[in-house]
Amino acid sequence: MKHVDEFRDPVKARALLGQIGALQEQVMAKRTRPVSLMEVCGGHTHSIFHYGIEKMLPDWLELVHGPGCPVCVLPMGRVDDCVALAETPGVIFATFGDAMRVPGSKKSLLGAKADGADVRMVYSPLDALQLARDNPSREVVFFGLGFETTMPSTALTVLQAEAEGLGNFSLFCNHITIIPTIKAILDSPDMQLDGFLGPGHVSMVIGTAPYRFIADRYRKPLVVAGFEPLDIVHGIWMVLRQLAEGRSEIENQYRRIVPEAGNRRSLEAVAKVFELREFFEWRGLGSIDHSGVRIRAAYAAFDAERKFPVAAVSIADPKSCQCGEVLKGAIKPWQCKVFGKACTPETPLGALMVSSEGACAAYYQFGELDELIEVASQ
Amino acid sequence: MSQTAEIIVPGATLPGANAAKVTLAHGGGGKAMRDLVDQVFVRVFDNPELALLDDQARLPLDDLASHGDRLAFTTDSHVVDPLFFPGGDIGKLAVCGTVNDLAVGGARPLYLSCGVIIEEGVAIDTLRAIAASMAAAAQQARVAIVTGDTKVVEKGACDKVFINTAGIGVIRQGLELSAKLAQPGDKVLVNGLLGDHGAAILHARGDLALQTAIESDCAPLDDLIDALLAACPEVRFLRDATRGGVATVLNELAKASATGVELDEAALPIREEVKGFCELLGLDPLYLANEGKIVCVVAEAGVERALAALQAHPLGRRAAVIGTMAASRPGRVAMRTVFGGRRIVDMLSGEQLPRIC
After folding, report:
1. What ipTM was reported for this prediction?
2. By CB distance 3.0 to 4.6 Å, which of A197, B56, B225, B240 could disulfide with B100?
3. Which residues of B touch A70 (CB under 8 A)?
């Protein structure tokens, strides 16, 4: 594929890996433990496993797979709310495909569908709007989730619904923002990270300025990177180069997509429709201040939380689940007590086993598990 | 498919196959059903066994025995939405699926049954088109549809048309094909482009605003397998890579043989359009369904002949060696990625669902 294959070139990969190896002496000069880098975004995690990048990296470098998979971090209580909305008589519940499998306390949306709820898989919020136009006698609820990547398209959909006066369309808003979450991770006492790969598509919307505090206040380098394997290896090299040179800056590897100032029109639409919530609960991380958005009062007519009774019950993660420690890099996925035993992709207990973008599911599906468990048990 | 404005009252009696749509009367066992069976199915399937309309087909043992030394017997139910898609339809699928299940066991496919469950309200012309397609596929695969059954169910009790076919074939004298025979060093081949059927069906459902010309690869593979087995006695295992795709077959192969499979991603024959389709939706072509593709395990000594035989056949032009059976990691499928990394290719847990972003 044109414009894709160029970014998967194994020859260039070997050259970059050579340059990463050449940084070892400088980077490791004053250290005793391996360098620990977090890729924040689930899309990066997926690529890293899909292309087997982790095993190509030297052993003095560790990747920590961050919280940036919106499907994974959705708390169980919100899934229960989705199921309750979907099971409301007259409702068509429209959702992205991979959110259908996330387990609630009783069932997932797939389970609700099997029990007779009208759950439709859509590829865009605009598909949900079309469902509302096509079914004027039904209430269509769109399950909006994701970081700033998907927030603008949801905001524009609400604006479009308002322009058309579509009274039977509403949004169940579960959008979350990445910055407070990175801050929460940086503030946690067991944090051991040395630098970050920043999320490419989120940054396409918000630009690079919002990350500055990471470099300025926490003295950690962050490189916004693309999703092709060469992007990722290149981004890793850029972070390591900063560490080698004793710098902590925000750099942009993904210039072909990410403008430094972000996308103004997207940000305007988001600001018009959404406002920050005081806090939002994350599976595996708990409640994080200002980490989610809700619909502004001006668009209350399109807010499923105002239109329908939504219980909004908070359900604690299972005690045995160690997702939080994995997310902060304190332990590796396979070191969790329930990994691959009580917690598998078929029956996930924790956030990170839910989608292939979650670190645990990725290790379970793509990793050479037998070896990992053997090493862990020694 | 023809369109009709006629309104059918459920349960109303309409005469036989001249009605525009199937009603419950067509399942009632009376004349309407007889007409439907006779004119829509028996006539186009056109063989003397079926034309007798007895309760069973009677198959001469002598004839069966002339093809080999063991019977192969299989069944498969076919449900697909939409019924008609680029490159095929449920009828063609129902014949090819069962023919291929027989052929990959080393059997010469000979006889099929055809059980059709019809939702009331389906246009008779739709059934005619499906039956014609079944007849054409059966002719191509040199099998006879010798016994059948139709049932009509109320609206909503099934989705338009479901077809079950069972098949009987005869396995060539002395031929043993089994995953258990696969050994380290054996090569893994496929007969062409992967994922076309899965992508064509997803596209044909019409909820993606994409323009593509991807067609299903639905085809009977008995002739191709004939040619392969004639050219290469070193074939150890064959399986058609349908639901769950090549990845699923390879995992089954690895587990059954207690051997590892090492795949080479760069060698996988995948159409550019299918790659692009999967990129957009976050799907993996290794798990997309095929309806005209086999995975073959061949001892190394026979690889060149096997590949040449496949590539000489119209259904095998893009055949390729995609991997090797390995002693390391028994039961697992590993892949050398295009990027130079390695990863495990596991069984899917549940269906592939498009990713959010």
Report:
1. 0.85
2. B240
3. 356-357
Q: Where are the domains of chain B?
A: 16-171, 179-344
Tokens representing residue A254 in the block:
């993904």
User: CB distance from B344 to chain A under 8 Å?
Assistant: yes
A43 in contact with B, Cβ within 8 Å: yes
Under CATH, what is the fold of the domain B179-344? Phosphoribosyl-aminoimidazole Synthetase; Chain A, domain 2 (3.90.650)
Chain B residue whose CA is closest to A6: B339
User: Across the A/B interface, how many CB contacts are shorter than 8 Å?
Assistant: 102
Strand order in the sheet with B161-171: B70-78, B161-171, B107-119, B144-153
Task: Give residues with Cβ within 8 angstroms of A215, minimum separation 6.
Answer: A221, A222, A248, A249, A250
Query: Is A149 in Cβ contact with B341 (below 8 Å)?
Result: no
| Cα of B69 to nearest chain A Cα, Å | 42
Q: Exposed, middle or buried: residue B328 (CB in 10 Å: 0-12, 13-18, 19+)?
A: exposed
Decide: A109 and A100 in contact? Cβ < 8 Å: yes
The total of other beta-carbon atoms located within 10 Å of residue B47's CB is: 16
Select from 3.30.1330.10, 3.30.450.70, 3.40.30.10, 3.10.20.740 the CATH code of B16-171: 3.30.1330.10
- The strand pairing partners of B108, in sequence order, are B170
Cβ-Cβ contacts under 8 Å, B278 against chain A? none
Q: What is d(CA B239, CA B260) in angstroms, rounded to the nearest whole number? A: 17
Structural class in CATH, domain A76-177+262-307: alpha beta
Whether the CB-CB separation of B325 and B257 falls below 8 Å is answered with yes
